[in-house]
Fold this protein.
Amino acid sequence: MTAPLTTAEVIAVGSELLGSTRLDTNSLFISDQLRRLGIELKGKSVVGDDRVRLGDVLGDALRRADLVVLTGGLGPTDDDLTREAVGDVLGLELSEDPAITAGIRQRFERRGLPMPEVNRRQAMVHRGARSLPNPHGSAPGILIATGGKLVVLLPGPPRELQPMLAALCAEGGAIAEHAGRERLYTVLLFTTGLSESRVEELVQPIYSTWRDGTEPISTTILATPGQVEIHLTMRSSDDAHAKERLERSRAQLAAALGDCVFATDGRSLPQVVGDVLRERHLTFAAAESCTGGLLLQRMTDVAGSSDYVTGGVIAYSNELKIQLLGVDSSLLDTHGAVSEAAAAAMVDGIRERTGADVCVSITGVAGPGGGSEAKPVGTVVIGVRVPGHPLSVQTHRFPGGREMVRLQSSQMALDRVRRMLG
Amino acid sequence: MTAPLTTAEVIAVGSELLGSTRLDTNSLFISDQLRRLGIELKGKSVVGDDRVRLGDVLGDALRRADLVVLTGGLGPTDDDLTREAVGDVLGLELSEDPAITAGIRQRFERRGLPMPEVNRRQAMVHRGARSLPNPHGSAPGILIATGGKLVVLLPGPPRELQPMLAALCAEGGAIAEHAGRERLYTVLLFTTGLSESRVEELVQPIYSTWRDGTEPISTTILATPGQVEIHLTMRSSDDAHAKERLERSRAQLAAALGDCVFATDGRSLPQVVGDVLRERHLTFAAAESCTGGLLLQRMTDVAGSSDYVTGGVIAYSNELKIQLLGVDSSLLDTHGAVSEAAAAAMVDGIRERTGADVCVSITGVAGPGGGSEAKPVGTVVIGVRVPGHPLSVQTHRFPGGREMVRLQSSQMALDRVRRMLG
């Protein structure tokens, strides 16, 4: 092989991966291992246990990619067809390697069992190919170099596949040896408080100038409720240069996005807020109505959150707003439970009762019922108390259904705490 | 189109789905919807935001399948290229549909925002294609009939995609209209409180007799934390017969599983418990420690849950267990916060303070820290008060990490309420 490997595709084999219950997860590990070597995963496919179709998909992948990794279909049974399909496409005959048969037989004997005859299929290797030892199972892998490309066959179970692939990608491994000097580098920017299209408007004029030229940076923008992520990726053989250039690029985008950027290291918003609270020795409590516990659940999803989360009150009914938070019933009669007055009383109530330094209240209409003309579904009032700041109460209007409104409410509450903690 | 659709492929578009962190999950839902119509998913692919490669993969899929569903890449930004790639492959020009632009503009105006100009890209439709309304987002879908095949473009976010695909697959929808007369029928049994292998042991002798013959029923057993599902599926062109046969089969399994079956209609455990509470005019409150709001969040995820959920207290710290629930500090000193005495005091505390009919308390060690030899990670004590029953407090030991322990705790608490409400 002459030119280094730069692109790869993964083909996961198995009819069970085409149903409505199971996903191929091996590709996540494979993608990560290859990226480190500068080999970019350009596509992945799932194919059932069908020799013709698998051959077809493999042929397509080999047209496009330098390296094709096939996972699964190396078992001993009739529906394990990966070896045969690869032989069909590459025109390579299979023959039994007696040394492999002996190894499989030993594996069985160690467990006091005779080797079933069907397992001899697992000792079939393509002409000129290399067998890859599998310390955790009976199916060895196979590595084939063909026409300047590499084809790798690995067993499907993650605990068998992972050490085998890691060995191929480690220094001196067959994939690492054929990778180029170039590596792929990625930096992240997580934002909140801006829509996906607003983020695009702000950063497109900047990143569009990086797309071309000798060292293009590619930009991916990714939106989830209450969060927009930017991923910047470049390929380089100069580690220090790549890191410096991506860091500079990230700083440019961060300047355009201002304080909407909450993380550049992959942390979630509950982690970012939690880390600031821990660092400043501040405690946190919340009074939730429409979010019904979602905010505190997200805060306490983070391991170690007992360092700063004391707890809170879920006051879903008006009665509990009165009984557990001391909200005045006449206030609720006059302004309603979804009001700035109620949010202020709730945040003061939780603060008095818990003594927490940072307190949040959320009250709103998550839907689908309960909306009115004045307070339609999506109307949410959030109160925040942070030491050294006056009480902050704001009314928001979130789009989407119940789940979206609840998620965005919790995200907005966390973001307002983050900004006030500055 | 003449011949009915029998095979399909899915292409998920988005460079973020090729990295090491995100998987395409839409294909699970799509596979399920198509199966019901007797259309088999034969392959799926993931492609990055790359117009040429996407065109290439689409061309390959169209050679093999009757129906190709593309998901994602319909956003307003420059890296959303699905529309363009489909136009390339099918030789169909795109033009802006002013009615769609007006709809998108209205969507923004309802939120008090001007429509960013980039969003006009989402109004581009192929010549002769049908635009598919998207009630939950700004990107409409597109349906193209071409050479006896169907190509469907849908937005990537599941909450947008799911109702759109469901409409296409419902009676009279464009995919259903082109499916054959055979349908796939499925019935469900959801259980809790049994391990996957115990469920298998109980039902295998029954379902194994249905596997062969002219009308086989296939059985899938699926485990998630605190829940094991059984799916029974058969293919038939006789609606009444299939339903009657599956119903009879389900009843046989249900008899073997007893009161571990909590739903045969797809409802989640929070829905099942909520429906019983509503029917009996009972109110619900909880005092959560290690679950940090997860139980109440799951209960209030259900629309209309304000009919029975009053709220509760998240007492993550010992101080709040004392202050908000009236737990005796000497009790915590003597028995510890993770103890049957503490769980009993917590459930009594929340009952006194809220007056709710049904009350639950959860206190435990979710990990990763906080475990001891006597109370290792996964030790969780749950207290339940239900009218007409004595107080019930039990200690459980759950396997797995933090998230697993929290999920199983909330599931067990709900199941104990369900059984006591009987």
User: Anything to note?
Assistant: DSSP finds 14 helices and 17 strands in chain A.
